[in-house]
Write a structure and sequence with these properties.
- The chain contains 14 helices and no strands.
- With 343 residues, it is mostly helical.
Length: 343
């Protein structure tokens, strides 16, 4: 670990959770950090010791976290939590959320990596079989004046035209990349609105961006800020370009006198129930808590949908791979059986 220069997201999250738990148990901040240093390896002990030195020098925790490359949104929430005395809860909640986001990101990476590996493997097998194995059957069948089975001829055709197939795939990839380039040239909110209209993708988009706004705003509201103050901070220090642009859009409507829930009405990249939850939270006087509960539920929904997608995709990929392997075996074995029957 000594060669690492920065915290990983998982390590950042675990430090925040452990630090929050220590504060909750009554330890002062510098002692809580010292406790974490004793449980870490040398590299992290040095980092935490530098944190403690900066605390003793008068620096605030949010400044230290920001300088150590912790997420900007976490540093912003910690800033207001320090002022309102809600630091333990803010540390635990933000650390837990980072852990869940990392787990979700790992699941997505695994979902994408698995089919790509299998596609590469199948292409390699097809090339080897078509280039080295099946040509021997051609020579043998020609010497015996026998006709190759249809499935073997199909595999030979695919192997013979492998370069053409690869060129077609490369052209498709280029067309997709060109489309993505044009897509990224559009304004961010227009891109998100377009993605929210794409079938199958739309619900993932709506859950993701509803969660972003709900979680970030809930941390600020639970630190004692008003809606206008929270939106103003997100418009300047939002953790993502989306949050900054969206907060500016909402801020303009709030200045014009529109209630917060009306700024969400009809926006396609939010879940339909978001507006209702906002309205109920405002009426009950627990808007920050309502948004926080919603963000937790949305993260669970995203995890469930990702797991469902994984459970559907993997069997389909395995069936396709199994079918292809079966075709390969048949293309090799059928000629053998035909020759045995012809003897």
């Amino acid at each position: 670990m000594a060669f690492q220069k920065n915290w990983t997201k998982k390590e950042q999250a675990q430090l925040l959770v452990d630090l929050g738990e220590s504060l909750k148990n009554g330890y002062p901040l510098n002692i809580a950090l010292a406790l974490q240093a004793g449980r870490k390896q040398k590299f992290f002990r040095l980092k935490i010791e530098r944190m403690i030195d900066r605390l003793k020098a008068g620096s605030k925790l949010h400044e230290i976290l920001r300088d150590d490359k912790f997420p900007q949104d976490v540093a912003s929430v910690i800033y207001f939590a320090e002022a309102t005395g809600a630091l333990p809860e803010a540390l635990i909640e933000n650390g837990t959320m980072i852990l869940r986001r990392e787990l979700y990101a790992q699941t997505l990476r695994r979902l994408m990596r698995y089919p790509l590996f299998l596609l590469w493997f199948l292409s390699l097998v097809l090339y080897v079989v078509g280039k080295f194995l099946l040509p021997n059957f051609i020579q043998l069948y020609q010497s015996l004046s026998l006709e190759l089975p249809a499935i073997t001829r199909m595999m030979l055709y695919l192997a013979a035209h492998m370069m053409t197939i690869l060129v077609i795939i490369a052209c498709l990839i280029f067309a997709i990349l060109l489309g993505l380039y044009v897509y990224r040239r559009c304004a961010l909110l227009k891109r998100i609105s377009f993605a929210a209209r794409v079938p199958f993708l739309n619900e993932f988009v709506r859950i993701h961006f509803t969660h972003q706004l709900a979680f970030q705003l809930s941390g600020l509201l639970r630190s004692g800020l008003t809606i206008k103050q929270g939106i103003d901070i997100l418009s300047k220090k939002g953790a993502s370009p989306f949050l900054k642009l969206e907060s500016k859009r909402i801020e303009e409507l709030l200045i014009q006198g529109h209630p917060f829930e009306s700024s969400i009405e009809g926006i396609i990249y939010y879940l339909p129930e978001f507006q209702m939850i906002i309205k109920q939270g405002c009426e009950q006087g627990s808007f920050g808590n309502a948004l926080y509960r919603l963000s937790g539920e949305l993260m669970k929904r995203m995890e469930q949908k990702t797991q469902w997608l994984l459970s559907i995709t993997q069997p389909i990929v395995l069936i396709i791979i199994g079918g292809f392997v079966l075709v390969l075996f048949l293309s090799i074995l059928l000629p053998v059986f035909q020759m045995i029957n012809g003897l």
